Amino acid sequence: MIRANKPILALTASALLTVTACTSPAHLDGTTNPNAKAQQGALLGGVIGAITGAAASDKKGKGAVIGGAIGALGGAAIGNALDKQEAELRRDIENDRVKVTNTGDRLIVTLPQDILFAVDSARVNNSLRGDLLTVADSLRSYPDTTVQVVGHTDSTGAAAYNQGLSERRANAVADVLMDGGVGFGRIQTFGRGEDQPVASNLTDEGRAQNRRVEIVILPNPR
């Protein structure tokens, strides 16, 4: 069993405070920091690497430094790649209702159901195939990632039916990505039915937000 020691706990606390302070997306003068997510990835990678290196090394101080350096480099590379891919997707996707979100450790491409499918259908609208193929091109340009395609519905109708529809829609989007050259082994599909709403199902607007397919792009561990 790995025992925590005071130097490592202090290192962790200090590094986590640094992540919060140094990766803020805005400067004091109101300007934004375009490298915030890359810096966050580097610092978080450094924290994890330092702890891992210290725990694995007989000479804990040396292990922490080496592990932190390796982790920081890996985290920075992931953060930079996500920032670059995000910018390219925003530039190249033509439908302004397709949303690209960068959380710092993954990209989420959200496609509203009403532009993606007809009512009660799992056939991708021709008007959205081009944007899905754009996403596929991006995925081929950044091959060191795993892709999760997740279907969601609102709460209208039977839960079991909604679950099946969300699965069929996720599979339909995955099929288009594979048509665009993304390898079968990189893609995982999930149906969440009505279980993961992002808005209230009590209003038309909320239900529309809940009907969606998300393409989640996850960097592979390094």
From TrEMBL:
The keyword Transcription does not apply. Transmembrane segments: none annotated. It is found in: Cell outer membrane. InterPro entries: Bact_OuterMem_StrucFunc (IPR050330), Gly-zipper (IPR039567), OMP_bac (IPR006664), OmpA-like (IPR006665), OmpA-like_sf (IPR036737), Sigma_54_int (IPR002078). GO terms for biological process: regulation of DNA-templated transcription. Pfam families: Gly-zipper_Omp, OmpA. Residues 1-28 form the signal peptide. Residues 1-133 form the Sigma-54 factor interaction domain. This is OmpA family protein.
